[in-house]
Design goal:
single chain; about 130 residues; alpha+beta; Hypothetical Oxidoreductase Yiak, Chain: A, domain 1; two-stranded antiparallel ribbon; two-stranded antiparallel sheet; 4 helices; 4 strands
Length: about 130
């Protein structure tokens, strides 16, 4: 089945089980990523678990994640009973802006993550030392 058809089918399933459009998009994006890029066990087999949890009320399908900026590059998130993927999607741009070297005062540039050491797909520093 083509990816676009899978996406639409999965979005419809999320919405039918009680997920908001934003939650459905976040969950379907991560599911397709897992299915297409090597973590098939975290793709559609796991997606069914999410649908069951949504339907049964164990996941808040209309969650409104909240964020607390504890430090400039440390954000505490509360998923409001929803899925972590939605919170990640909502805060990603803000977080990456906060941790880019240009976001630090010039006196702290030596401690900032240099270009090329930031994995923008996972939000993880690749610097080891």
């Amino acid at each position: 089945m083509p990816i676009d058809e899978l996406r639409q089918l999965a979005l419809g399933a999320c919405l039918a089980c009680g997920g908001s459009p934003a939650m459905a998009k976040a969950l379907v994006d991560v599911t397709l990523s897992a299915a297409c890029f090597g973590r098939t066990e975290l793709g559609f087999p796991h997606f069914v678990d999410y649908l069951t949890s949504l339907r049964d009320g164990r996941i808040n399908g209309d969650a409104k994640p909240r964020f607390d900026h504890v430090l400039p590059a440390l954000i505490q998130a509360d998923a409001d009973g929803g899925i972590a993927q939605l919170g990640f999607d909502l805060i990603y741009d803000d977080f990456t802006t906060r941790v880019k070297p240009s976001a630090y005062p010039s006196s702290h540039k030596e401690t900032a993550i240099p270009p090329g050491n930031w994995d923008t797909t996972s939000g993880v520093s690749l610097r080891t030392g």
